[in-house]
Description:
CATH class of the largest domain in chain B: Alpha Beta
Number of helices of chain A: 14
Order of helices and strands of chain B: HEEEHHHHEEHHHHEEHE
Strand content of chain A: 5-15%
Number of strands of chain A: 13
Largest sheet of chain A: 7 strands, mixed
Number of domains of chain B: 3
Number of helices of chain B: 10
Order of helices and strands of chain A: EHHHHEHEHEHEHEEEHEEHEEHHEHH
Shape of chain B: elongated
Distance between the termini of chain A: 43 Å
Helix content of chain B: 40-55%
CATH architecture of the largest domain in chain B: Alpha-Beta Complex
Structural class of chain B: alpha+beta
Radius of gyration of chain A: 22 Å
Oligomer: heterodimer
Strand order of the largest sheet of chain A: 2-8-7-6-5-3-4
Largest interface: A-B, 29 and 35 residues
Amino acid sequence: MKIIYVDNNATTKVAPEVVDAMLPYFSERYGNASSMHSFGGGLIVDIRRARTQVADLIGARPEEILFTSGGTEGDATAIHAALQSHPGKRHIVTSRVEHPAIKNLFEQYGKNGYRVTFIPVDGQGRLDQAALFESLSEDTAIVSIMWANNETGVINPIDEISREVGSRGILFHTDAVQTVGKIPIDVSHSGVDLLSMSGHKFHGPKGIGALYIRKGTKFKPMVVGGHQEGGRRAGTENVPGIVGMGKACELAGSNLGDVGTRVRQLRDKLEHALLQTVPRSVANGGQAERLPNTTSIAFEYVEGEAILLMMNEYGICASSGSACTSGSLEPSHVLRAMGVPFTAAHGSIRYSLSHYSTEEEIDFIIAKMPPIIERLRQMSPFWKQAAEAALH
Amino acid sequence: MWEYTDKVKDHFLNPRNVGVIEDADGVGEVGSLSCGDALTLFFKLDAQGRIKEAKFQTFGCASAIASSSALTEMMIGKTLEEAEKITNDDIASFLGELPKEKMHCSVMGQEALEKAIACYRGETIKKPEGNLLCECFGITDRQIESAVRDHRLFTIEDITGHLKAGGGCGKCHENIQSIIDQVQGKPKAMRPAPVPLTNIQKIRLIEETLEREIKPALHQDGGDIELVDVDGQRVMVKLRGTCAGCKASQVTLKNTVEAKLRELVSKDLVVEEVRS
């Protein structure tokens, strides 16, 4: 069965060019970049090139890039560094719709003596900026706000927010894992001090990411040991991963145009078609500025896991905000924070496209979705009532 | 992704007996939209009192739909006396197996069946006995106690998988744990203190109990408690962190803090919250 992959916010296909770039670093050029011999030590040049490729994609300087194992480590490192560098400050601020990498981290700091403010969002997933600025005080060590949301694709105006936070002398971190490679980013025009990104979200390999640390930002390492990465992150360099991430950044830079136009049109086509053909469906965050590749659609009165498993029968891969797909019994905290009612949150499906998505695939999804939803609604004890109520 | 058996997949993708029986002899409705799953079960009897037709409508995940479908297959041809013996474990075995996180889907089937039979007999299902323990899913301590005993459950996850209890805000976890400990026979950590106590002794003991028994659990949920004053039998406390303003905090205060202090310090203590 052909796989129709519209789950690119979960992970992406590694670009063939990236695989080609990485392969020599497994069995041929397998040295340790910290070695004195040029077989290993010479890899510093390859790592430097990758660092430049990463920096170029986000408007940073190479020395501002720290390689990590991925987004989660980048987030944890950034917050750790900020708090260790400002031991007197006990207040941290984030939003209510963050990825678990930030959400659970902040909750943990909250249990360990920090005061945490979770800033709400409106019905479209837009951050309450006034509440954010109001929450800041002398005691605030860092503000961490995601650049774009993984479930809805809603984009926060990070340039403005970060400048405002920075003007008060407070550190600003952004989880840009879903943003890098999807829309143009230029940290040099923002007030962002720390930014996490992850290779596998834009056709790089898994297990590699980067943390941007603005020059001059106080830093304390989380992982200590060897002197790798200028003493900011110990551990033998993941050379194949670093090279792959660099290549992926280069490719992402040249594909930004495609994602911003063609992929956006495909996303819009999919969204419009589904909203039109499926009654009682809503695009979560549809009125807000969003990533060009993401749409989250709530199909009322059906349950997400059941939808996904029926889509799976056609080889269509997507995600859901439903409770039943996660370990928990509560639907997505993102949709709940937006005030999406339970009836819709349980039946929300996220479609996330990529540079590799084709019109043919989108047409296939457009054809298959309405009967799936209809079939599940016919099984649902609530549907007939709801449909009748809507008619009267 | 859940590991579903082929039989679960089959009953999900090709559910048997979907629909409504307009002139049903018995109807049972369980669940709700907010809970994430709901089932309405219908049956009709033949002249001999056997179930000749059973239908269902389900809102929920694959295992909820498969459990409903399986249940209708199992009911058909049985007398009500036979049908009422069907348990949630029978539904799960009929489907091969259900992931333990999904056992509540089969429980929903059993409950709908009980309700449908009660409906036919003109009985009303007694409200579950005991005190409400999991507010998110409306489960009582007695329900949890019998699930722990009847299904040999040992962890909070097992109970959440079975009854959904504890799967929401998580505030009831420590209460669930103490039921498990009670039923599964974990020895009590401490014996009740001897009485009578002097005032100083009482305050110290209250402080110790808060430190050892209460605070660690509250810290897990990001909350905290502080002893403000003790006046006779009145224990005044302040709630901090996530506890402050938490809707369930009054329940925690009475069911946990007060209960613990009564158990370990003095049986007529009354805990009061002081708001700042």
